[in-house]
């Protein structure tokens, strides 16, 4: 089953063509690296895949819905339910507990508070941080902070997790443990698309889509 489809997607910022006709699809259960040098269009692609930005041209389908047909309200609901985001900078609320940070991943999904906290504890269990639920982020390590952010992305059981340089702020040993977690979550069924400029990291993932100057230049390891 296809969970994400891009067909001839373009994105212009004024005179700058950040994406110049990108087409690929991702099936449920895939683990995909989007790899390319700085300025190649990876972040723009992440924003368009995540429905944070509308493309200038072409079609983006998430879970079969053509994003262009949805108004802003329907789009934010689709985003809340279908897409989890993980960023290099973690973006945790410093004054909230780990559990509250994770539960916040459900704020816009129309889930009641008690259920949000129950699901947050489940997600923390999956990332190995159940014993840190009542801590604030300043009392945990960088790797643990990224685990919290990953739990927040997973808490609503999204169809796609989009991770933007998830190990970019971590030392290599901690980064490796986050990569191991990403593999483990994928083995448990999560569909994960990871953006990276690091060819070595990309090489660890089964499928690699390489972008250059707003275009896909190779797509290797795609399951037949
Ligand atoms: P990457 O993530 O691979 O570094 P980006 O998607 O950030 O690439 O950028 C692709 C191109 O689009 C670059 O030329 C960049 O300068 C341009 N770009 C990205 N975002 C904007 C923006 N908001 N306004 C203008 N130009 C942008
Ligand atoms: P392939 O050559 O396997 O068809 P690509 O066209 O994506 O796939 O080429 C990149 C390959 O080269 C990856 O499979 C990756 O394992 C390897 N590679 C490239 N750069 C590095 C690097 N810095 N460290 C480790 N492996 C790398």
Automatic annotation (TrEMBL):
Pfam families per the UniProt record, alphabetical: ABC_tran (PF00005)
Residue ranges of every copy of the ABC transporter domain listed in the record: 4-224
Nucleotide-binding in keyword set: yes
GO molecular function annotations of the record: ATP binding; ATP hydrolysis activity; transmembrane transporter activity
Keywords, alphabetical: ATP-binding, Nucleotide-binding, Transport
Domain of life: Bacteria
Annotated CDD domains: ABC_MJ0796_LolCDE_FtsE
GO cellular component, one term: plasma membrane
Gene3D superfamilies documented for this protein: P-loop containing nucleotide triphosphate hydrolases
Alphabetical list of PANTHER family matching this protein: ABC TRANSPORTER ABCH.1, IMPORT ATP-BINDING PROTEIN
Name assigned to this protein: Peptide ABC transporter ATP-binding protein
């Amino acid at each position: 089953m296809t969970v994400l489809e891009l067909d001839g997607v373009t994105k212009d910022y004024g005179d700058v063509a950040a994406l110049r006709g990108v087409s690929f699809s991702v099936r449920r259960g895939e683990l995909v690296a989007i790899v390319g040098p700085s300025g190649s269009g990876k972040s723009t692609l992440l924003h368009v895949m995540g429905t944070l930005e509308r493309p200038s041209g072409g079609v983006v389908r998430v879970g079969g819905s053509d994003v262009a047909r949805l108004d802003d309200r329907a789009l934010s609901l689709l985003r809340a339910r279908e897409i989890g985001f993980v960023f290099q900078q973690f973006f945790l609320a410093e004054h909230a507990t780990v559990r509250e940070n994770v539960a916040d991943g459900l704020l816009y999904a129309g889930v009641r508070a008690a259920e949000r906290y129950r699901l947050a504890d489940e997600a923390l269990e999956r990332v190995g941080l159940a014993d840190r639920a009542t801590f604030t982020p300043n009392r945990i390590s960088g790797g643990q902070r990224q685990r919290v952010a990953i739990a927040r992305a997973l808490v609503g059981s999204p169809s796609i997790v989009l991770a933007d340089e998830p190990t970019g702020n971590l030392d290599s040993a901690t980064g490796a443990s986050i990569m191991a977690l990403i593999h483990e979550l994928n083995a448990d069924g999560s569909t994960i698309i990871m953006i990276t400029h690091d060819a070595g990291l990309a090489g660890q993932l089964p499928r690699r889509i390489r972008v250059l100057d707003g275009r896909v230049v190779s797509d290797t390891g795609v399951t037949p």
